[in-house]
Amino acid sequence: MLANGSFIDGDAVIVATESWTAEPLLRPLDEAIADALATIPISSSATISIAFNENEVGFDLNAFGVLCPLVESRALMAATYSSTKWPGRAPQAECF
After folding, report:
1. Of 5, 24, 65, 78, which one has the fewest beta carbons inside 10 Å?
2. Does the model's pTM come out above 0.85?
3. Sign of dihedral through CA atoms 87, 75, 58, 91?
């Protein structure tokens, strides 16, 4: 039901949210789907953006990033080089 009390009839609904948010929304409509959503494991994450001059990094940035295996027991799981993945994301070094 829409805010004005009317309904829209459709063939499908796309729920574009996290599984833990979708589960209680869908439970009144479809218990099986809600149960399936509740089984999806979740974890928290944080994103930190840091800028460096390319000549000061100390390693080759000709990569998309790095993954740290869990067996190394590091606090960092991965790093992505957004300026390598998406050209134009970072200004040239002389701009810093």
Report:
1. 5
2. no
3. positive
Instruction: Quote the crossing angle between the two packed helices 19-26 and 31-38, to the nearest 10°.
Output: 160
Residue that is written with structure tokens 């390319």 in the block = 54
Both tokens of 29, joined, read 């409509």
As beta bridge partners, residue 79 has 66
| Distance from C-alpha of 41 to C-alpha of 57, rounded to nearest angstrom | 35
Alpha-carbon span 79 to 68, nearest angstrom: 9
Tokens of 77: 């799981």
> CA–CA separation, 82 vs 90, rounded Å?
8
Alpha-helix residue ranges (DSSP H) falling in 1-96 = 19-26, 31-38, 82-85
